[in-house]
Amino acid sequence: MSDDEGGGSLYVLTAVLLTPAQFPSFLGDDFPEACALLGVAPTGEGYGLVLGQDEEGARWTVVVDDVSLVAAAIASWDCGMEYDLSPDERTIVVSLAGWPVELSVAAPGVPEPHDPEQGADGTGRVPLAPPSAEAWGPVQRRLGADQIAREWADWRERVATDGGAAAAAHPGLARALEEALEYTRTPPPPGRVRSTFAGEEARTLRVDGPGWSLVARTGEAAFVLLDEEPGEVLTVPRAGDPDLPDLLAALDRVAVRPA
């Protein structure tokens, strides 16, 4: 594909979705916040983020509004199939210097990946870069919750083994659960509560708020991470909180889901 700045070629390496139901959580607590970080307006359909290199090897993230095309490419790649992702230039919303994620691949036949000169994208922005693994903050907290969601079986086994900690044992945990409950009464910004299929009749919930992230599976336990507790995972076992099943069911009802 060609970028929208200089008309040069972009060698596509990967892509990710940026929609209310599915977006890189390190970009924000919700979909509008993630869009704001990239300088685009939140829309109902969302965007696709196409990551690649130009002919000089510079890293670029191209935001396109052809979500279905990007989704088809990702689905094909996930199945081990080839897919030539070449969005029409008319679908390009903005081209941003840098990549927001770390990639272990590079385009063949071009120089090593590097960021273009600051301001080369016409915005004067600092190039996008992967989140630091050396610090603890909102980004790392959300990434930690994502990891728990991916490794749910292991974390569920920990709850079965040690019983976890009750919500009343930590004020920050109790605050997070109360704010999550408020989401069921007053709908939060799109993407604050997301629900994905988890097999049989279960759903995996990802909920974020100011200073906290929650990952849970309906009918089971919940885990909460707090900005104020670096690297700690607080557990809400189903047996430890009789209100938890109702809370998770209510959150699932207000959650956005992938199409």
3D structure, described in words:
- This protein is an alpha+beta fold.
- The chain contains six helices and nine strands.
- The protein has helices spanning 31-38, 67-78, 138-150, 152-162, 171-183, 244-254; strands at residues 10-18, 47-54, 59-64, 92-97, 193-197, 203-209, 212-217, 222-226, 234-236.
- The strands form two sheets. Strands 5-6-7-8-9 form a five-stranded antiparallel β-sheet, sandwiched between helices.
- Strand 6 (203-209) and strand 7 (212-217) form a beta hairpin.
- Helix 3 crosses helix 4.
- The mean pLDDT is 89.
Largest sheet: 5 strands, antiparallel
Number of strands: 9
Q: Given the C-alpha coordinates, what overall shape results?
A: elongated
Strand fraction: 15-25%
Question: Topology of this structure?
Answer:
Elements: E1 10-18, H1 31-38, E2 47-54, E3 59-64, H2 67-78, E4 92-97, H3 138-150, H4 152-162, H5 171-183, E5 193-197, E6 203-209, E7 212-217, E8 222-226, E9 234-236, H6 244-254
Antiparallel strand pairs: 1-2, 2-3, 3-4, 5-6, 6-7, 7-8, 8-9
Helix pairs in contact: 3-4
